[in-house]
């Protein structure tokens, strides 16, 4: 298993202030941005070797519903979930479970055309293993 991308998803009530800080003050360019139902918003900012997602509580709830079918993220302000892009999410899920992670939800296809699995790593950090399925992108 080799992770090909790291995403740190930061949940924040003040999405606009966080976005301004990371984009304008820190100088991270917006790679992608999406809006969804219930005022869900996310911006993915590029870092040379990783991305940083700023998500509000509605977006975190939306991702939980899509990936798991129920709320599983830690309550704000302690909700941090690390997402790793991998080549084969099914094989990676199996390998991570064998390595000590608890599978919260098996891989599911998301509306934004990725295959996502949710796990809890040793120590309690929730992680998403994801595999991009193609160039067609839907709203997040």
* Strand coverage percent: 35-45%
- The CATH class is identified as Alpha Beta
Radius of gyration: 14 Å
What is the topology, as strand order, of the major beta sheet? 2-3-4-1-5-8-7-6
What is the fourth-level CATH superfamily? Answer: 2,3-Dihydroxybiphenyl 1,2-Dioxygenase, domain 1
The helix count comes to 3
Draw up the topology in text.
Blueprint: E1 3-11, H1 15-25, E2 30-36, E3 40-47, E4 50-55, H2 57-67, E5 80-86, H3 89-98, E6 102-109, E7 114-120, E8 126-132
Parallel strand pairs: 1-4, 5-8
Antiparallel strand pairs: 1-5, 2-3, 3-4, 6-7, 7-8
Question: Overview of this structure, please?
Answer:
- With 140 residues, the chain is α+β, with helices and mostly antiparallel strands.
- It has a single domain (3-132), classed as Roll (2,3-Dihydroxybiphenyl 1,2-Dioxygenase, domain 1).
- Helix content is 23%, strand content 42%.
- It contains 3 helices and 8 strands.
- The protein has helices at 15-25, 57-67, 89-98; strands at 3-11, 30-36, 40-47, 50-55, 80-86, 102-109, 114-120, 126-132.
- The longest helix has 11 residues, at 15-25.
- The model has no long low-confidence stretch (mean pLDDT 87).
Which properties best describe this structure?
about 140 residues; about 25% helix
Summarize the structure.
With 140 residues, the chain is an alpha+beta fold. The protein has helices at 15-25, 57-67, 89-98; strands at residues 3-11, 30-36, 40-47, 50-55, 80-86, 102-109, 114-120, 126-132.
């Amino acid at each position: 298993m080799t992770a090909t991308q790291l995403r740190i998803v930061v949940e924040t009530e003040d999405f606009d202030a966080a976005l301004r800080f990371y984009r304008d003050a820190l100088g991270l360019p917006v790679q992608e941005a999406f809006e969804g139902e219930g005022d869900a918003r996310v911006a993915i900012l590029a870092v040379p070797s990783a991305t940083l997602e700023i998500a509000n509580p509605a977006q975190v709830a939306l991702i939980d519903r899509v990936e798991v079918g129920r709320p599983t993220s830690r309550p704000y302000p302690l909700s941090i979930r690390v997402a790793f892009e991998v080549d084969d999410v099914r094989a990676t899920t199996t390998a991570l479970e064998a390595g000590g992670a608890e599978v919260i939800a098996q891989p599911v296809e998301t509306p934004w055309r990725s295959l996502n699995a949710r796990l809890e790593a040793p120590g309690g950090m929730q992680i998403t293993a994801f595999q991009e399925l193609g160039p067609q992108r839907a709203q997040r």
